[in-house]
Amino acid sequence: MAETSNRKLTVEVCNAKNLMPKDGQGTASAYAIVDYDGQRRRTKTKSRDLNPQWDERFEFLVNDADSMHTEILEINLYNDKKAGKRSTFLGKVKIAGSAFLKAGSETLVYYPLEKRSVFSQIKGEIGLKVFYVDEDPQAVPAEAASEAAPQAVEEEKPPENQKAVEEEKKEEKAEEKKEEEKPKEEETPKEEKPPEENPNPTPPAAAAPSAEVENPPLAISEKLKDTKVKSAEMVKTQDLQLNDHELRSLAGDRSRSAYDLVDRMPFLYVRVLKAKRGSTESNGPSYAKLVIGTHSIKTKSQTDKDWDQVFAFDKEGLNSTSLEVSVWSEEKKENEESVENCLGTVSFDLQEVPKRVPPDSPLAPQWYSLESEMSPGNDVMLAVWIGTQADEAFQEAWQSDSGGLIPETRAKVYLSPKLWYLRLTVIQTQDLQIGLGSEPKVRSPVLYVKAQLGPQLFKTGRTSIGLSPSSSANPTWNEDLVFVAAEPFEPFLVITVEDVTNGCSVGHTKVQMSTVERRIDDRAEPKSRWFNLVGDESKPYGGRIHVRVCLEGGYHVLDEAAHVTSDVRPAAKQLAKSPIGLLVVGIRGATNLLPVKTKDGTRGTTDAYVVAKYGPKWVRTRTILDRFNPRWNEQYTWDVFDPCTALTIGVYDNGRYKRDEGGKPGKDVRVGKIRVRLSTLDTNRVYLNSYSLTVLLPGGAKKMGEIEIAVRFSCSSWLSLIQAYASPMLPRMHYVHPLGPAQQDILRHTAMRIVTARLARSEPPLGQEVVQFMLDSDTHVWSMRRSKANWFRVVGCLTRAATLARWLDGIRTWVHSPTTVLVHVLLVAIVFCPHLVLPTVFMYAFLIIVLRFRYRQRVPLNMDPRLSYVDVVGPDELDEEFDGFPTTRPADVVRIRYDRLRALAGRAQTLLGDVAAQGERLEALFNWRDPRATGIFVVFCLIASLVFYVVPFKVFVLGSGFYYLRHPRFRGDMPSVPLNFFRRLPSLSDQIL
């Protein structure tokens, strides 16, 4: 009991804002009733004030401090019936006890007023400070505290007794029933009647808004417009008055699953549907005009006045506290001149705009009266609310930060075409009509078969046939031609038999792609088919050809570089496995971007957007125009089928939304690219990091800024994740019927070209330069810089071996005598306890790797300029790398580069020869190329067999180890005998021309 009397809850009712007028005269006389745990307090009445200021503090006894979090604090606002016609409800607030703060941490929080029923007309917010204090039990006796509580209740007791309060609540319930019985179609009158002419004291009810969205905005009448402007001038002008509490309310738990990796960006939404005229004047085309700060936007001009357009204004672009919507009509006079007439204007205070967060239902539009002295009686239907980028209307809305309704600046999702390998097996031909009529057949034709699918053209090898009666005229190839086919497929596969000797076609046939069989593995061989060859007009029949055609569903068609692949699934859906995880990427923003182009010829600017690619899904954010620190805050998800894949993210400057004088769009400029390998990420962990954007230009590497990305790789089953590491990287067909390296490289670049062409035909297109940069389509082109980088990568891999060799040499030469002595001891232990060798090695590896866990990489790695050697590359080497294929440089420049390439190739050629010579010397030891050397080796093998039969193996290992580790004073300066013998063995180098 002592604990229950020591805690007090303090509620400070500070003020209220933008209350709903309830007295029939455009104002209200408000007071608040605070209820907590059976205790009630009442504030004073602020007469005729929609923004009352109370600053009254009340204290409540907390009966049970442990259960305080389960109690509810309720504040109800009423319009005083003594000052108005009836005591009416103005709104309520409920605060859970778990939200109470301890004294010292309190702050002024504005809570939006809640409705009592669906049809209640409530708006505004109330400012409260709520906190509790734990008092010293010795400071206030329990008896004094118990006596003080009733006294405080009496001091703050409202003028009406408890019975009057109960009667007031009964009247409110009756009023609530009346509101619910009113039809939903009832609309707000265009003018509120004076109190003496209005027999019904209840204020006019507006059209019922959606149940999920509270506080629909009320239009500001012209009478109150001046007052609102004056009060707005007293408040500090901001873009959009949204504090942290309001932003948290916009980012509620209901939609955190969709946008939990990015910040919520507040947007002001205006949906303009249609207008109607009260008079029967000319019904010409009309449009609506929105003015907010420096923004002035028009809807499309329609004759039926039905626009249905949504506009979204971002917070950074707003510099006003009011929104004006006006409707204009276009009329033509007799001289064909167009005259625009304003039908009226309606204004909104941005502080009164309601907030909406999905999955709330959309805000119901309402009719608003247009204020106009020239043409009264006109209405416009619209809806105004504050939402975030998660709003369903955002993607199709006019966006202020993306230039409006420009298609090239909108956020889009693209899908790569589904790719297949098409295998054509050319078996043989029969009954070919190769003769020359009545002329004697004196030549021997050389034939080959070529096949064409779209722009792809492949040929078989050549074969000659004899024309004598005894020779066969049915040439056979049995060769496979593999194409890349993309859905929807080309209509036909064209097969042609050609004669090399005269360059003419023997005949051709067309295979319909719709009839081609699909197979998913190597167990079922597709059926072969015969096709008639069609010749020219003089030879309608050219013979027959025997082929086998099928679409290979067991392969994965590689359309990106193998080291950065993001998808390894087979083409056939039947073979696709279920996803093992989910990849969520939040593209938050970029900072310190450098200007890429000039605007109006006076200053630099950047219109940045981001492209992310994983698997067949490409996402493109909206373009933020003319900002060096854009904030996209867009979030996307992908299914993950293999953890050893990479996500590619590129940043570009949009140059396609503007066209030149000839009407052609520009090109997008690359700003930078990053990659994140999923296998380097911990599961179910959010990585929020900024990555440097570096781009290689003809003048060298340049840092273009930074991009902020949030990544989360979530996996539901650890077992599936571990199994993925034990399964092959590619589908089974790649190992059962592998494609050759050269063939695979050709097919990969063909697939790249198909994907590039398909995405470039999308609307809006994803530019060729963007797709090629994301797919690394130029990795096969010669580059001095890449060659250096790969060479030093090889050297880096051999560094560990070189370090081990130096360590062994130091031990052998007794650089550190104690270490060499310990190695002798280790050698003895290995010889006498060989069964402990492997356990010791693996335990040592276990301990070393576990100890290195704390030094692991915590941040996903990005592009490394030092590893890429972009900081030491010369200008001529960069110019060579950016040169096209074939080259476009002058002959003297090409000659210099060719000589340099020959010098490098000469060194590589010598290195390859030296490596080959070592293997050839070892082979020569066994094939008697040098009879004396092989004879010496034969005698050595005989003696060694006898020695090892007599001498135990342990003694041999121990003696060899001691001999190898002998002190340098017992070692000669010349090479050893076995090394001299091996170097004297012959190789095939002397037989090379």
TrEMBL record:
Membrane-traversing stretches: 821-851, 936-965
Membrane topology listed for this record: Multi-pass membrane protein
Give me the stretches of Low complexity compositional bias: 141-152
Question: Mostly located where?
Answer: membrane
Show the ranges annotated as biased composition (Basic and acidic residues). Answer: 154-196
Could you tell me which residue ranges the C2 domain spans?
A: 1-110, 249-368, 401-531, 564-691
Tell me the keywords, alphabetical order. Calcium, Membrane, Metal-binding, Repeat, Transmembrane, Transmembrane helix
Q: Which cellular component, as a GO term, is one annotated location?
A: membrane
Query: Which locations, inside or outside the cell, does it occupy?
Result: Membrane
Provide ranges: composition bias, Pro residues. Answer: 197-206
An example of a Pfam family matching this protein is C2
| One function term, GO molecular function aspect | metal ion binding
Query: Where do the segments described as Disordered lie?
Result: 141-213
Regarding protein family, the annotation reads: Belongs to the MCTP family.
- Specify the protein name: C2 domain-containing protein
Species annotation: Acer negundo (Box elder)
